[in-house]
Specification:
The complex is a heterodimer of chains A (about 600) and B (about 250). Chain A is α+β, with helices and mostly antiparallel strands and about 600 residues long. Chain A is built from 19 helices and twelve strands. Chain B has a single domain, classed as 3-Layer(aba) Sandwich (Rossmann fold), CATH 3.40.50.620. Classes of the chains: A alpha+beta (about 600), B alpha/beta (about 250). Chains A and B meet through helix 3 and helix 4 of A and helix 2 and helix 5 of B.
């Protein structure tokens, strides 16, 4: 079986191009993130991913998580030991503020360490991802007491965290949340209700699990404005920090799923034995607001899962294509059979996998860098501009990177032929694992609605138009370049930005009047933005690659490969973005024409 | 007790090395470099001894190009307290390294030097032994277990016939074998702390050591490609081939 190898060289290059980390290290906020420290952290994280997490990926999938009659849950063999090592390494605190015991590293770095986690073992990576989400919410809105009692122990990795939003009747629409929270005289609350799809809701890694639960107080307003956020620990915590009584929060079952088998997805029952003790985070009725601030990072994180799993599928497919000997070269019928990587269609598939993965990664890194600028600058204008860019990019990084991962992991199976359809090669697992990424933390349609509504129509398309302009200015800046692949990229990028402009105009013109037409084309809008913004990010990287290659850099081959990948992408993927723009502009009538009864 | 741990920067064990086109050596431009795995074991052992209370300070030392700093930072991330770099662009051979280390030992006065038994690039397996001779210290090589007992170290050494346990008076040299321990992952907080630890740089001349190579590399070649096998008709034909073609019996 192929072994995961983190693309460290590419990571390094991204940190010198779309996410120039050295600029961050000069700010007081990220003073510790010097190039050599970051390099050492990426190296060590990649060793951990390759040596510890990757070997457990397949066995974890086969074995799966198990719930026992006493409501306990065990994860597959080796997972707990791996978590102990992860915790000892200090992995959980990577992005967390130093004042709470974290390392305070920039998102540009954490994006790469997160990708490695998900590439090597997505089932494992989910736990840190969700725990970090819970920590973020507590740091954002929690009292000092909540921060010191719970958040610090989670940052050290001693305790785990979960996010409890979904209920059987409340999925994408959280206005329907029914879980109740009754005030108790000591200031705490008693929580009653059922939460489903709770990732790592119960497990054997840590002695305590801190659940963040959305619930309604008795007099709360209807809908999303009446939802509050509570901390509900599995074990109550005594004044001295030691563990107290078992709280009334139990895992009543875990799901049988298509993928991520190593990760227990729990149904959580709160309050069946008299009420689960919970503590309010922030103020009553503002729970969803806190969640949404945190949700940006969670959505970005799922986008990274898409990229990570796509990278893994690509590596496995390449390894197989190099080894598998089948058929002679086309056009050379007398020659001996060759490894299938020589066949043009295998190249096409591998390049679709590789180029889209690299484009999505470069775009995610550009977004992460903008987040870091927001965090580290004192200049309010810089903050504002970058925050607007981040807000626009979140539904794209999430929506497009994950949709892309479905295609890439499916192609990964295809490259393997029949061997991909049997589980033993591992290619099928990636396809199954990837399948959840377009669903949780907001389906692709939810991302798309966010993109065309909140992020575009509501502000008159200002940020989207600014972005298109910036991309056109960049395309103009390629005038002086001589590398043939960059020349082609310039033209294609211009075609792509024109398509974006066309689609944005359509959206703005129709949002107040024919809004259903806009929504009919919302998911194609995610695709269009993803592909063209990906091309922009890839071309920015490619421009630097061309300069280094022209200067006869010792690693010329690496830079030429970047340019060849860019060339494939702009020639074969950008046309799909232009088609998406056509779909947006022309597809609405067809989408709405069929009578509902005729389905 | 102070321990000195020499560490070497080598081509990473995962890299498939290539011989340069002019046969002058191995191409190390743009390949991943990391700490020699046997040196990692040495650092880990020193850190374990410190955790047991047998050691109070660990000094990592490396000799070579400026980038050896990374190797020293890595050692400090695993747990060395400070680092010493002897910086030179000259090709260093085991005797020169042993002399440099002797000079460092004279300055630092450690009670113990733990080295990897060999480096995975040239596989010389000489530096530790040469250093012991230069210092006139006892040596325990190919260690798979180390215990400090008062003024001596009880060391289990891997020898051809099995294991040999020796007691060596301190100060002493220990060279590490593969089974001594399994190095930990450097924790990420420690990687960041390592950046702030003391790292002193010297030139060989500062230590009064002449590092001019004594050996000249004439030619570096890849091992011969494996030839395809043949089926032999019978045992007699096999014996004949072994005797006359392969000339191994």
């Amino acid at each position: 079986m192929s072994k995961y190898n983190a693309p460290l060289k590419e990571f390094q290059f991204l940190l010198e191009t779309v996410a120039p980390i050295e600029n961050l290290a000069t700010t007081s906020h990220f003073a510790d993130a010097t190039a050599d420290t970051v390099h050492a952290i990426l190296e060590e994280s990649s060793k951990f991913a390759t040596e510890v997490l990757d070997p457990l990926n397949w066995s974890g999938d086969r074995e799966g998580a198990k719930r026992h009659d006493d409501a306990s849950v065990t994860t597959p063999k080796g997972f707990k030991t791996a978590y102990d090592a992860y915790r000892a390494m200090g992995g959980m605190g990577l992005p967390m503020p130093q004042e709470f015991g974290g390392l305070g590293l920039p998102r540009s770095v954490v994006t790469l360490t997160d990708e490695m986690l998900h590439s090597s073992n997505m089932s494992f990576g989910l736990m840190p991802m969700l725990t970090q989400g819970a920590i973020e919410a507590m740091l954002l809105a929690g009292s000092d007491d909540i921060k010191s009692t719970f958040a610090e122990k989670m940052i050290s990795g001693e305790w785990a965290g979960t996010m409890n939003l979904t209920e059987p009747q409340a999925g994408s629409d959280l206005a329907l949340v029914k879980t109740r929270a009754e005030r108790v005289s000591d200031g705490s609350y008693k929580i009653f209700g059922t939460k489903i799809f709770i990732t790592y809701g119960e497990h054997d890694w840590t002695e305590n699990i801190v659940h963040l639960v959305l619930a309604r107080t008795p007099d709360a307003p209807e809908g999303v404005k009446g939802i509050s956020l509570f901390v509900v620990p599995k074990f109550l915590v005594n004044k001295d920090g030691s563990l107290g009584a078992r709280n009334d929060a139990y895992c009543v079952s875990i799901e049988h799923k298509l993928g991520i088998h190593g990760s227990p997805t729990a149904v959580m029952q709160y309050g069946d034995k008299g009420g689960a003790i919970g503590y309010l985070v922030g103020e009553e009725n503002r729970g969803l607001e806190y969640m949404f601030i945190m949700m940006n990072l969670a959505r970005f994180g799922v986008g990274l899962q898409g990229i990570g799993i796509a990278e893994r599928a690509y590596q496995r497919a390449v390894a197989f294509a190099r080894e598998r000997v089948q058929s002679r070269d086309v056009g050379a019928p007398k020659n001996p059979s060759v490894p299938i990587i020589r066949h043009p269609d295998i190249r096409r598939m591998l390049l679709r996998m590789r180029s889209q993965t690299e484009a999505a990664r470069a775009l995610a890194m550009a977004t992460a860098y903008a987040m870091d600028l927001v965090d580290s600058t004192d200049d309010t204008e810089v903050k504002k501009v970058n925050q607007a860019f981040v807000d626009l990019m979140i539904p794209i990084v999430k929506g497009w990177s994950t949709e892309m991962s479905l295609e890439v992991t499916s192609l990964g199976v295809q490259v393997h032929g029949g061997m991909g359809f049997v589980e033993e090669t591992g290619a099928a697992q990636h396809m199954r694992d990837a399948r959840i990424t377009t669903i949780y933390e907001g389906t692709t349609a939810i991302q798309a609605n966010d993109l065309i509504g909140r992020k575009m129509a509501r502000e008159g398309g200002v940020t989207a138009k600014n972005l298109i302009n910036a991309m056109r200015v960049f395309a103009d800046s390629l005038d002086g370049e001589s590398h043939v692949h960059l020349k082609v990229a310039q033209k294609r990028l211009r075609d792509g930005t024109d398509a974006m402009a066309r689609a944005v105009e359509f959206n703005l013109a129709n949002f107040n009047g024919n809004v259903r037409a806009c929504f009919a084309g919302s998911v194609p809008m995610v695709k269009l933005f993803g592909i063209v913004c990906g091309a922009w990010a890839l071309a920015r990287v490619g421009m630097q690659a061309a300069h280094r290659s022209a200067a006869n850099h010792a690693d010329k081959a690496f830079y030429e490969a970047k340019l060849a990948t860019l060339r494939f992408y702009v020639d074969t993927i950008i046309p799909e973005a232009i088609a998406a723009a056509d779909t947006i502009v022309n597809g609405a009538e067809g989408t709405m024409a069929l009578e509902e009864a005729a389905f | 007790m102070k321990v000195l741990v020499p560490v070497k920067r080598v081509v990473d064990y995962n890299v498939k090395v290539r011989v340069k086109a002019d046969n002058s050596g191995v191409d190390i431009a743009n390949v991943k470099m990391s700490m020699n795995p046997f040196c990692e074991i040495a650092v880990e052992e020193a850190v374990r001894l410190k955790e047991k209370g047998a050691v109070t300070e660990i000094v990592a030392v490396s000799a070579g190009v400026a980038q050896c700093q990374e190797t020293l930072r890595n050692a400090m991330a695993i747990g060395a307290d400070r680092g010493i770099l002897i910086e030179t662009d000259v090709e260093l051979q085991p005797l020169a390294v042993a002399k440099l280390l002797k000079a460092v030992v004279d300055r630092e006065q450690p009670q113990l030097v733990i080295l990897g038994k060999q480096a995975i690039d040239d596989d010389a397996n000489q530096t530790g032994q040469m250093l012991a001779a230069l210092l006139n210290w006892g040596q325990a090589t190919f260690a798979s277990k180390v215990e400090i007992e008062g003024n001596a170290a009880k060391v289990t050494c891997e020898v051809d016939g099995g294991l040999e346990t020796v007691s060596v008076k301190l100060p002493a040299i220990i060279t590490t074998d593969l089974r001594l321990n399994e190095p930990r992952y450097a924790t990420l907080p420690n990687i960041m702390k390592a950046k702030k630890k003391q790292l002193d740089t010297f030139k060989p001349a500062d230590l009064g050591v002449d590092v001019t190579p004594r050996l000249t590399t004439l030619k570096v070649e890849e091992p011969p490609k494996r030839k395809g096998g043949v089926k032999v008709a019978d045992v007699a034909a096999l014996i004949d081939k072994l005797k006359n073609e392969a000339k191994v019996i």
